[in-house]
Structure prediction request, 360 residues.
Amino acid sequence: MGVMKRVSTIFRAKANKALDKMEDPRETLDYSYQTQLELLQKVRRGVADVATSRKRVELQMNQLQQTSDKLDRQARDSLAAGREDLAREALSRKSGVQGQLTDLQAQYASLQGEEEKLTAASQRLQAKVDAFRVKKETIKATYTAAEATTRINEVFTGISEEMSDVGLAIQRAEDKTEQMKARAGAIDELMASGALTDALGGPPPDDIQAELDRMGATQSVDAELERIKAELAGGTGPKEIGSGQADSSVGQPSGTNFQKEQPGSGGA
Amino acid sequence: MIIRIMGEGQLKLDSSAVDELNKLDSELEKAVESNDDAAFSSALQALLAKTRAMGAALPADAIEPSELILPREGATIDEVRELLANGGLIPG
Prediction:
């Protein structure tokens, strides 16, 4: 007997076992319907959980992309400042971040696929549960317990198979979201500690920025020194007349407002 | 004949399709027995493709048991083995 037949036999055996436990087959219908509604709730929660997990991965992808962009900018700034060593460091960290990003992209796609499958499963189950509710009332109204048995067997076996399949799909999705939560938590911690961007050794990228800032500061201090030296030597006059003009232009409108308010409040 | 692909739903196939599917199914079974991962995934892939190609989806509100049930796409050999052992994985 092939795989396909064996699996279907196993599913069927499970349905029969549940069926055998019930004394009145019509009770089976009501009981099964309750279980179906519970399962439907569970699938919907499953879909929501997978979506949450997917959004979290999306958020982390955005954060990593920002880090990567920042490292890229720092590499350019470093090169522009003639510091190839810093640029090399920034780029090697960027490649580490890109590696993480690629990994997250694969996880994202897999979660997206899981979400689509579960959503479809939820819709299929909903349609079957609705159909089952109608069938169950028809069977209860039309047949005696003894007569109903054959019809119930068929319907019960059919819905039970669907429920087993959906149940397995939810288990798988739950396992997956648990794994993702653990991984996402680990990545969050790494990002918070700066260790993720530090994965390739050396100081975190903010040290590259600090170095660039230091270099920038040194350059502007040098320029300032040069300017002051030139002023002292050449006797260049002060050029700070602009600030006085700005003050008077701000003062005027507020004065006009004040004047206008006086007659207004007197008339009220 | 109604066939279920786990995780996807049920399909209706002409009974004449069964011979062709059985051939692929026995390859799948052999792969499970010999624990051959590569053969397993290619046999499963072929079986799924053939079933989808020859089958028409059953309406979502149909409540009918399946004559044959296929493992989900991407199932591992261990997953199928566990399923076959006792159905122990099936919840509820």
Observations:
- Residues 198-203, 240-268 of chain A have pLDDT under 50 and may be disordered.
